[in-house]
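Section handout 9: paired folding examples.
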Amino acid sequence: MDNTTSPALDAETKVAERPGDHEAELRLWLRLLTCTTLIEGELRRRLRNSFGVTLPRFDLMAQLDKTPSGMTLGELSKRMMVSNGNITGLVERLVAQGLLDRRASPSDRRVQLVSLTAEGRRTFRTMARANADWTSELFADLTPADIEQLMGLLSKTKQSARRARAGGED
């Protein structure tokens, strides 16, 4: 047998035997994480300083703005990928502020529906406009062509991650 060539290595073996082979992917992952952390941190800071609101409250209101008829706490929990307990606490605080309305579902009195009040919708839309402006400011150094290229690359990245995730399921 010729020892000058080695068989193709699967990804797991490559990581174990040749970790240097993945240096570019690891640097990319850290760069993506750093960008996400910087942007999210700045948006959190601006929401807190300008409106006295947390990002989770803003996100909850964004979900409800998309669904004027209201949502159950369970639906909000799934969409926001947080526990029902976290949703309940957020909802209670926003109800106390007069920004959300909570009522029993007409089809099942045990289920609570929440929706934005008129004041909640006005407040959210003011915050959403500011958030869009801030986001634009954070990406101001990117040209439209840069953004289009980055969106394409991130779409490809997302597909790759989903494919790897599906392949890793048992």
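Moving on to protein 2 of 2.
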Amino acid sequence: MSACDRGAHPGLTGKSAPDFTVSDGASTIHLADYRGKVVLLNFWWSQCVPCIQELPGLLQLHRDRPDLAILAVSIDEDEGDYKRFITMRHVTLTTVRDPNQTAAKLYHTDGWPETYIIDRSGIVRRKLVGDPDWSNPEIRAYLNSL
């Protein structure tokens, strides 16, 4: 998998996902609100090529598995870039802009995209760096097992 920048901090796997609340004035994500659901916490940036490549797969996964909470946290500093991206790419995921990277810092994320798979109990089960194939049967089976 490729990424704009690779993080090397998988230390959260098997531990409670750090809770956070991020609000950008238009939307708010409070991770604790999703307890009881499988969560894909995705950190992205509108100028990151792997993030753009990953988006269609995430959107299809969202359509196929509406029971999954796919939370997309953008690190875009420019609100206009963020809004244009959301509109032009028809993003229907729950998303919020976090230009100060408040949530990303809690997860030691410095590579885009990075996705954390969090189980129903709030435990981080996996960290994926880059643009995985969200239609891959192994990934789909893993998500079904949670």
